[in-house]
Amino acid sequence: MLAEDGVLLREGLVSVLARFGFDVVAAVSDAEELVAVVAEHRPDLVITDIRMPPTFRDEGLQAAVALRRLRPDLPIVVLSQYVQADYATTLLSTGDGRAVGYLLKDRVADVQDFAKSLRSVTAGATVIDPEVVRRLLHRPPDPLTTLSTREREVLSLVAEGHSNSAIATRLFITEAAITKHVGNILTKLNLPPTDQANRRVLAVLRYLRA
């Protein structure tokens, strides 16, 4: 099953797949149609572009995630024009992380390697484009992971809008201890040395985004 909105690339992929022994049961141009035809044909492999109509954002990826919720073992390969490490992470979180692939469209030019990757995914392997792997390995660590359990607890209460004194009452410790925890949190999150109130807001934003 193939989903690609670009006519020339879609037809080119159909030809390449047929050349290497794949039987393309349907080739569609949008994510909504992809979900429908997968339900109808129950293919052994789905190949989909990430950015699809109508918004050309991540419709293809969202369709892939939805399909994996329905069939956690469904092999899916997503194709992307750009390196988006977050997209790869989202895809890997589906099912048990097996039988999925994230490849850049540039790799399709090496048709033999492309076909080999497709067969690997169909067999249950996970295939991620080397450039995406590099980006994943070199992403800066999340500073929230450096917080202690108590500091995360304090930050969650700050996010709920509680003052230091209120947090101290809730946690049965002194307000001075809370002040120290908040200071440690702000330092570990590498927040700029602006006024304390603004730094608390920035800390909460970091927490909510995470």
UniProtKB/TrEMBL annotation:
Which SMART domains does the protein's record reference?
HTH_LUXR, REC
Domain Response regulatory residues, every copy: 1-120
Q: Which GO terms describe its molecular function?
A: DNA binding
Q: What is this protein called?
A: DNA-binding response regulator
Q: Which Gene Ontology BP terms does the record give?
A: phosphorelay signal transduction system; regulation of DNA-templated transcription
Q: Which residues form the HTH luxR-type domain?
A: 140-205
Task: Give residue numbers for the modification (4-aspartylphosphate).
Answer: D49
Q: Which domain of life is it from?
A: Bacteria
Q: Tell me the Gene3D superfamilies matching this sequence.
A: 3.40.50.2300
What does the UniProt keyword field contain? DNA-binding, Phosphoprotein, Transcription, Transcription regulation
